């Protein structure tokens, strides 16, 4: 019991602090401070570098809706005079974070279930039925072979297939793009973000944007950086590509919305920044299966209920909206003393510097958020300063002329009795 | 060689520990312990705060499928008597993480390619052909102007456009919502999650849920918190909005599934928590382009193969399912001594406290996962305790009456010969 | 002023280093080193373990497109002879990161708005009109009840509903799957990734892949690990399931693309690794609402403009493409002395080891990226080594026979005058 109290007393009422050798040496002193400064510079550098690179796409909850507008007219021998509006060229009608705009197409009208010759090709051209194996359906064939070899046109014979007839002939893609006017179509992107941790939410249609402005504005990095309406042509150009090129074979464009919010400042400073990028990077040198296209069909039924369809191989641009929710936190001003203390030690307050004192200041508001960086910074920062001492010790104790003298001062050698060595000398 | 051995010997067989001044002072001792306790409280506070906020959306692989159910009936002069079921109001038929339910619409039937007057508007009303520029197609126009000015109705003349005729008139949106009965439709949300690191997977249809229960249950935070079937009306209300309001102009609702799994406990404790939130936050004060709508068309062909379509401007609610995979790790009980040691030092085991000893305990199972937090905690925790000493030193050496006495005890001053100063005095 | 200079001078030109007791004891010395080594092993272990587990799904910007190929033929009494191609079985025609392949279906042709008896079921079978409540529309009913009880067939009477008639009868699902041949369909997955931090981008169609190869190859973990074309059957098998089973009721398959890029090495070493996994884990023991299906309709209009539709309940497999962008960083070789120093201390350079020196080496290139791990490692690493000293102190000062002797050497006791205690003795 008493022992326990003694122990507790010792634990509570004793203060242990390491004994220090104070070496009054310009050389070493300066060296020490320099190393410490270097380390600090390094840490701060890190903090900054890292503060920039960090928590891109932090858990932000974002919702995106995209609305295309624009109408154009085509006049071809095949289709005749035709108007194309949103319901015609946006497929599917709605998606979660992206929108597809058809810019080019290979259309095959009035297909019906039946038998017809394949499109001539390496595997499909034939002399006799022997060349066609019944029932075979290769990955690239448009139907199931019947085994007969029939004439495709006067000169050429190809294997017959059971398929939607006539089969699609997509050997050449229209150049220029069929809906090249899509360059002038526009996208209205609505984006709402929400930071669960802060319960802070905002939309990219800023409070100062009026309905009138929204009706007329077009995004421009210089003049209208906050207008959420984008001209397709401009998007592609901003990404450094030519719209008419991409329109032919299609592609994927990324519309990046960066929310760079410093929650210390007013919410009105939390603004979206738009940037554009082609996501299906194609090195022209190595251009295997470029672009983006898919097939869909419109189904009709005629009088006697028989079904026929119009098959469309749609080339176009898919716009993926990518939202980065970046929350900046105030970088920690790492302060390496002299920290000032006022002490009322009897007489008038006097000012004392103290060495090796190291602390961080965070602004309160963002503090809740800075838990992890703070811990990392303080922990590693303090530990790193230790390196300074280690380095200087190395210099002082191993590299200076007076090293033996210094060692004698720093170290107290204690022999281990148990090893029956001589008594230790102490200073 | 021998030198090398000496060095290695020294390295291996020497133990260096700092020399300590033990100050038996109630004041300072208590101060020291207090500061240490504060720091610990702080760290633990952090750990907990941070443990809550951390690794929301940790790399969880999740798959979501949504299935809507419900049927309703409308009876309007335009459409007559009509039944609406899933295939009618879910567009598109399937999406990856979201589902769109049409609640309101502006329908334009029997559109054909042709020429017709524009809907009257600021830019479209005209007196003479001079007011209409041929070939122009503004962002908001429904077709390409022919340049003629034709009568829209008896009183009014508007520019003629080549378009899908008749052009859509969406000037007023039906109030109340056309499919207001959608309030009673239901969503069955199936969600499977998988943590790659743990190869732990689970689905939100819990093992104790029977087919019978699933046929009848409706989610309710109180009574049926684990029923994965949600009434649309309830979802919107839970988010604090009125379904009939949102149904008119549409919107985006978020269905959040939080998996809060402590993998130390049985998998049966790993349960989904549902919460709802309107993602397209609209401040009523500033209500520019609210809601969510898009256009799609159903295409038909009549006898002579001519195509006509029904254009639908669909207003509705998109439900985005957002999955948070949160893995709780057992918070580290930071223990600040007295840590107890039993030492068999010849006589009976005795108990010794030791100061400044600081450690963490983690449960083994989750340990694999807690690498990073553990390192952060230990590293920063140990470093932070150093601050206590620094602070107390400041007090003791600069602010206490006996500071000079204490300094004399702590410091040993060593002059640098090279600076030709006097010999140092040592105590 | 002068005071200030003194203070500054003291701060700059003084070097303070702790005084050390050097205990020449094999036992303790070895113990100390061992503990330090253990800690280091532990840390390194962590670093490696953690390096593996970390930054899976680091903020990589990825775009995915999927293209299905394949055609098959069915011959049923209901539909007769029919060909199915991409436009028929991919619904919707395009999605952002996934593709749905219909493998099975329940088709209901020529539905029109009207009145018809419900499918017999627990709630729908009736004797008299009294059993049917007019206007009721349960979650699972296919229409709105009229309140009449009509004969479903000779023997059975069910409630009449206003609905798309005839109502769908999905009581039994076709076995084997209607489009079982889908096993041989193929998916071409195109994936582009981009690391914003490094501005490094790559696509999964590697530079050495030629158009000819792409036309013929099929992914195989052994023979063709980099061919981006996947046979559906193989995907499902690789995930350890049977395609024909999953084809009947549908399901969700995950195609995981792991980019394991060490940016220190040439970009050509940055390669995609494919793995497959069934995401809708179904424990056969507890098989509630398995599989994946949804309904969609094709709308037709007959002569007099009346609308009819073909309702399809589509069962099938949704393939979600999941991209993990993992960037490996060179693991830090933690080196614990002897670190070598050359010092020109007048005479020939001599070699000194130094204890307790601890550093990391990072390759420059990835350094920018390793900020956070580096800070964590150094900070915690240094701090952890402190633990060694603490432990050994405990042993030396509390558990060794000569503990009092060692304590006397390590500690210097100072009484607090203010507590009126005796003078302190010092050695």
UniProtKB/TrEMBL annotation, chains A, B, C:
In its UniProt entry, the species of origin is given as Bos mutus grunniens (Wild yak)
Q: Where on this chain does ATP bind?
A: 67-69, 186, 293-295, 313
* Subunit annotation: Functional P2XRs are organized as homomeric and heteromeric trimers.
Coiled coil region boundaries: none
Task: Name the UniProt key words of this record, in alphabetical order.
Answer: ATP-binding, Cell membrane, Disulfide bond, Glycoprotein, Ion channel, Ion transport, Ligand-gated ion channel, Lysosome, Membrane, Nucleotide-binding, Receptor, Transmembrane, Transmembrane helix, Transport
Biological classification of the source:
Eukaryota, Metazoa, Chordata, Craniata, Vertebrata
Question: What is the predominant subcellular site recorded for this chain?
Answer: membrane
Query: Is this entry keyworded Cell membrane?
Result: yes
Q: Which PANTHER family match?
A: P2X PURINOCEPTOR, P2X PURINOCEPTOR 4
Q: Which family does it belong to?
A: Belongs to the P2X receptor family.
Q: Which InterPro entries match?
A: P2X4_purnocptor, P2X_extracellular_dom_sf, P2X_purnocptor, P2X_receptor, P2X_RECEPTOR_CS
Q: Which Pfam families match?
A: P2X_receptor (PF00864)
> What's the protein name?
P2X purinoceptor
Query: Which gene specifies this protein's sequence?
Result: P2RX4
Q: Which GO terms describe its biological process?
A: apoptotic signaling pathway; cellular response to ATP; membrane depolarization; negative regulation of cardiac muscle hypertrophy; positive regulation of blood vessel endothelial cell migration; positive regulation of calcium ion transport into cytosol; positive regulation of calcium-mediated signaling; positive regulation of endothelial cell chemotaxis
- According to the record, the segments passing through the membrane are 30-50, 378-400
Claim: Nucleotide-binding is one of the keywords in the record: yes
């Amino acid at each position: 019991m008493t022992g326990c109290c003694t122990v507790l007393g010792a634990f509570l009422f004793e203060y242990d602090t390491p004994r220090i050798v104070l070496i009054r040496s310009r050389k070493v002193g300066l060296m020490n401070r320099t190393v410490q400064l270097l380390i600090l510079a390094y840490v701060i550098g890190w903090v900054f570098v890292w503060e920039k690179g960090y928590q891109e796409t932090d858990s932000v909850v974002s919702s995106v809706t995209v609305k295309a507008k624009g109408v154009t007219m085509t006049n071809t021998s095949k289709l005749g005079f035709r108007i194309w509006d949103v319901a015609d060229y946006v497929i599917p009608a709605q998606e979660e974070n992206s929108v597809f705009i058809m810019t080019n197409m290979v259309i095959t009208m009035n297909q019906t279930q039946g038998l017809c010759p394949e499109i001539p090709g390496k595997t499909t051209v034939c002399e006799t039925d022997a060349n066609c194996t019944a029932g075979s359906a290769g990955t690239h064939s448009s139907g199931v072979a019947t085994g007969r070899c029939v004439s495709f046109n006067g000169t050429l014979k190809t294997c017959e297939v059971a398929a939607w007839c006539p089969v699609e002939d997509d050997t050449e893609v229209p150049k220029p793009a069929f809906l090249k006017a899509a360059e002038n179509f526009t996208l209205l992107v609505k984006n709402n973000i929400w930071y669960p941790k802060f319960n802070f939410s905002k939309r990219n249609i800023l409070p100062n944007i009026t309905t009138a402005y929204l009706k007329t504005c077009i995004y421009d990095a210089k003049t209208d950086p906050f207008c959420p309406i984008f001209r397709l042509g401009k998007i592609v150009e901003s990404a450094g590509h030519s719209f008419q090129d991409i329109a032919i074979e299609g592609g994927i464009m990324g519309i990046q919305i960066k929310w760079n919010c410093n929650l210390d400042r007013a919410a009105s400073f939390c603004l979206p920044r738009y940037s554009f990028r082609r996501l299906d990077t194609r090195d022209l040198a190595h251009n295997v299966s470029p672009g983006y296209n898919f097939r869909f069909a419109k189904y009709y039924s005629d009088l006697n209920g028989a079904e026929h369809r119009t098959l469309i191989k749609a080339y176009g641009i898919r716009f993926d909206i990518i939202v980065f929710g970046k929350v900046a936190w105030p970088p920690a001003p790492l302060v390496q003393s002299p920290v000032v203390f006022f002490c009322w030690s009897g007489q008038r307050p006097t000012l004392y510097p103290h060495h090796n004192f190291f602390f961080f200041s965070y602004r309160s508001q963002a503090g809740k958020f800075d838990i992890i960086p703070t811990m990392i910074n303080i922990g590693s920062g303090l530990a790193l300063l230790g390196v300074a001492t280690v380095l200087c010790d190395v210099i002082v104790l191993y590299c200076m002329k007076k090293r033996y003298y210094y060692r004698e001062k720093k170290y107290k050698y204690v022999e281990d009795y148990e090893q029956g060595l001589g008594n230790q000398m102490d200073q």
